[in-house]
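quick one: adenosine-5'-diphosphate bound model?
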Amino acid sequence: AHKLQVQGLYKAYGQTLALDRVDLHVAAGEFVTLLGPSGSGKSTLLQLICGLTPPSGGKLLIDGRDQTFAPPAQRDIGVVFQNYALFPHLSVGENVAFPLRIRKVDRAAMARRTEAALEMVGLHGYAARMPAELSGGQQQRVALARCLVYRPSLILMDESFSALDRNLRLVMQDEVRRIHRETGTSFVFVTHDQEEAMTMSDRICLMNQGRIEQFDTPRALYATP
Ligand code: ADP
Ligand code: ADP
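yep, here:
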């Protein structure tokens, strides 16, 4: 069964066809990376998947259900943006608990799951800190914990590590791969860094000018003849 099925999805901005009839299937537990140059439609595709923008046409199924026009909160999807987007006036713990609060999860479960999510990203004991006290890498981890905490079946990451220096980027890559293994969550990860795509992904989706040009394993795509 496919977790995510994108069928003939397209998006026009005036004369610009940002996404040109894209088909993409992501299996349960699969790690798929969208790789392509700036302007190739990667962010547009992510925005359509999480519901931040409505498509001009085509269809989107999540766990077999048509979610093409479902509001973001009704989709079982977590998103980690490049700029973290943490609430600056809330503590780390309150940031991570936020998705559970809006889902009205009871206090005891909220505390337990918040601590478990912080632990999963290596931030045990950081609940009382404020985001501004943390490094960029730590803030990125909080953003990841905030999406893990409600156990989405799909996590989207948009250029999430591009603001980090190289060493920290490698650490975060390892960490996300471990979390992928441990939780079995499907990932759609966006990057313009080929090396990052190759080390992270089960399959890579090569995008150009709003289209998917190739979709295959790193090995198949970059095998030397
Ligand atoms: P990528 O993420 O690969 O850099 P985008 O999805 O951001 O690509 O952009 C794909 C195309 O759509 C580009 O030509 C971009 O200029 C255009 N585009 C994206 N968002 C908008 C928007 N809100 N309004 C107009 N054009 C847009
Ligand atoms: P609950 O409060 O829902 O009964 P717990 O918080 O006790 O559940 O967590 C049960 C287990 O699920 C813990 O071992 C925890 O590490 C794990 N867990 C937490 N978040 C996730 C997740 N996103 N995906 C899979 N397992 C998770």
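The beta strands are 2-13, 16-27, 31-35, 57-62, 65-66, 77-80, 154-158, 186-191, 203-208, 211-216.
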